[in-house]
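Technical appendix A lists one of the benchmark inputs used to test multi-chain prediction within the project. The record comprises two sequence entries:
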Amino acid sequence: MENTSLSAASPENAELQVSGLTAGYTSVDVMRDASLAVKPGEVVLLTGHNGAGKSCLVETVFGLISPTSGTVTWCGEDITGLSPRALLQRGLVLVPQGGGVVKNLTVWENLQLIAPGLTPDRSDSANSETNQAAYRVLDQVPILAERRHQIAGSLSGGQMRLLAIARALIAQPKLLIIDEPFLGLSGTSGDLILDLFDEMLKLGDRFSVIVVEQQLFRLTGRIDRYYVMNQGQIVRNGDAEELWSLETEELWSLS
Amino acid sequence: MSYQLFLQVLANGFFTGILFGGIAVALAICNLADRSLHVAIGSVIALVSFFWLAIIRSELPVVFGFILLAGISLIANLACLAVYRWLSRRGVNAEGIVVASFGLLIAGNSALELIYGTELESMRAPWLQGKIKIGGIRFFYGDLIMSGVVLSMLAALWATLRFGGFSLQLRSVFHDAREAAIAGVNIPRIQVLAYAFCSVLVIIIALSIGSRSSVHPHMGFFPLLIGIAALVTGGLGSVRSAFLSGVAMGIIWDFVGIYFGTVWQFASVFGILAVVLLTAPEGIFALRVRWPRKATKPNV
């Protein structure tokens, strides 16, 4: 069953609209003619086999790769090819695959990089808005505050991923793009990420999320819609109910 | 060897060291911003010196002269940065960019040689060549001015790095430019600021080298080699290490020149570099890896 209808790829009132995007890491196009849409407050899953072009798609949306064709619009504005900094200013935040932290900086410096006004004193009135937003997130992951002097590269894989996601949340995103949040993590570490994932969806104003993931079972009940990529193209998309109604074998075959 | 001579050599070595340290700092700040080894700076030093001669000959007021020099130095350094960025966008790695920078150095020096020839010219800045004597030790105005400017610039840089967000952004770009970009760091701005700082240092370095010896197309090459040695000996990634290493190199340079002869000067500097590379490849004052300290709980 394949569903690539334009109506599902481009829902009405979409906040993010990706149309016919083609891009690649070198001269070879890894992703061809990809279209995707995200409505306000939606959690959208992007899945597919290794090398399907998922990371290429989100990195192109976030301006890390220049597309050879296609457009990306955010709230009606054409943001194709804008720098990550410009996108961050518009509320788009990326947690890249296996990264999201500068490993040679301390935990606190990593947080300050995205929130320059962040101070160790949560009651600091001069930066109250930044501090309030940051401490709302840090309250969910107290280990980061406890280890704020530690070099990020010396944290465990799970803690580093928590730091990356916390840093992204501190930026108060309107659209959060998370690439493979559970990659290489054990069950316990994965659960920590899931707890944060659940908590972040409750934080303040609801923001949109694109989560790139192959471990679909981790996201049961947490997504609104899904897209499947294969060989650089979006080959399937639909509502979450439709995804979870699939037979287990078919579900596994998607990613 | 008299005590007086020892002090004189020490003083001279200190000023030479500040000159080498200045070059090492200029290289270090560019290296922090884009991981390049901006050796083309050697050619910019000569270019600035020749422009200084042209300004003197045209009898322009000194203030305009300095503004013009600042513009020339900035344009030349930013042109080099544009080349590095272009190469980087085309997938050329850091080693390739170093080779390209050497290419720019050779091309720049050759162009200057074609235009001005190979004759040595005097700096024509008498105010740089005067001297005063304190406690029997001679101090050249040029050395004092150069040291004052370099140290003031380093103090300004230290204050910027210590109290602004610039340090964090610069270090993040140095360690992981991709992650820094994802965190919203304005990498082009960081690089332009770093090269602009380097441009100002280049002016004072050029005038200092020119007043100490003479102006010729290859005048920046040998000081550049010592600057590179100081940068590597100190350890990449730290401006302070580069400067301290440069000062140490300058003092060693002058002492070796007086006590053992000038033929041993390069051998001593590069001998130290070889020993450091064999024993501590990350450099004497290498960037400290801060292992987890005792966790302190903030006010949460």
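Residues 1-8 of chain A have pLDDT under 50 and may be disordered. Strands of chain A lie at 16-23, 31-38, 43-48, 69-74, 77-78, 92-95, 175-179, 208-212, 225-230, 233-239. Comparable benchmark entries are summarised in Table A2.
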